[in-house]
């Protein structure tokens, strides 16, 4: 996004590697981990830990590929620009709009979720009013520019990390018997059966392990703003190593305190695990953490969709108006379009039946993974890599595909899988129409 003065300097060449790592934490750690892990644990039990390790490795291969392409040729459009270079205009068009649509739908569900958490303290506040307040605050943060965005996300990421560390300390104290004088026994029984749901349960839980790392593509887009783009892989390694250790310790301690079948999919497993110790501050602290986590990932997603819409417009894959600026050189038209999409997503989440919207949300999450596949395939054409790099990248690709098809292993995920293919077909149809009716004429006329 274009800005003047000191903020303009932040757009490109302003971020150090450790700042990108911190922003990566903010864009990644969200409700996918704090809430989604309950579903994964219930389906797979302790085997979910192995799923997290597989997801962590696959996520790193995606970011490493994206970081190497950024280091080789920094592009504001990030993965969609590399897809265009690798496979042609249809790929860049499809990748960009798949990402924009998926993030808009996911942001609507995130706003609804954090609004429900906020009603823990304000039970009489209408859900739509709460969601609107969070949406307006997010739009204001994006309007303030890169400096305001970076500062907000850094603060929120530190808060999330601090809360996770606090849980690890309290849970470790509980497991040692320092809270009630003896070690809890219920959770330890889980480790006697690593596959309580069988291989099908472990397979179906993989998608929730991947959701815990969702948002890594936002970090790839922000790598364009680094002082030294070649340091992007270092930022990804540090961030993913930190998250993998924290995720592993957190989930391991949850399983040591409570059996997987006692978890509530609608409640964070961190809260469920500690609720048995009757600590009065726990519900309030972790309710605040859930709000912070959901809001920070939502703001990061909003930043990404606005940036994506601007680059789509600049490369003539969206109306030209979206790359125009106004009000202190801000991309107000792209911001306005994203706000409209966000409002529509909020309305959908509040009005249509929960099961239908859950299907849409799962489909949107799968669309993100399809973009990861695009990134890995694009890297194969854009980068020159040795056999080790190819093997690593293809292994990550295989894990992603296995996780995607794991949604077919359980009933609730199947409609979402078919819904994601429906969204892909719709965007492919539009790309085909554009190729036949618009791009071919532009090429004939000598236009870009």
TrEMBL record:
Record's subcellular location: Membrane
Keyword field contains Transport: yes
GO biological process, one term: amino acid transport
Keywords (A to Z) from UniProt: Amino-acid transport, Membrane, Transmembrane, Transmembrane helix, Transport
Matches recorded under InterPro entries: AA-permease/SLC12A_dom
Residue spans crossing the bilayer: 20-41, 47-66, 87-106, 126-146, 158-178, 198-218, 238-259, 285-312, 333-354, 360-379, 391-409, 415-434
A GO CC annotation given for this chain: membrane
All residue ranges annotated as the Amino acid permease/ SLC12A domain in the record: 22-434
Membrane association type: Multi-pass membrane protein
Coiled coil ranges: none
A Pfam family annotated for this UniProt entry: AA_permease
PANTHER family: GABA PERMEASE, GAMMA-AMINOBUTYRIC ACID PERMEASE
Name assigned to this protein: Transporter
Naturally occurring in which organism (per UniProt): Paenibacillus apis
Taxonomic lineage: Bacteria, Bacillati, Bacillota, Bacilli, Bacillales
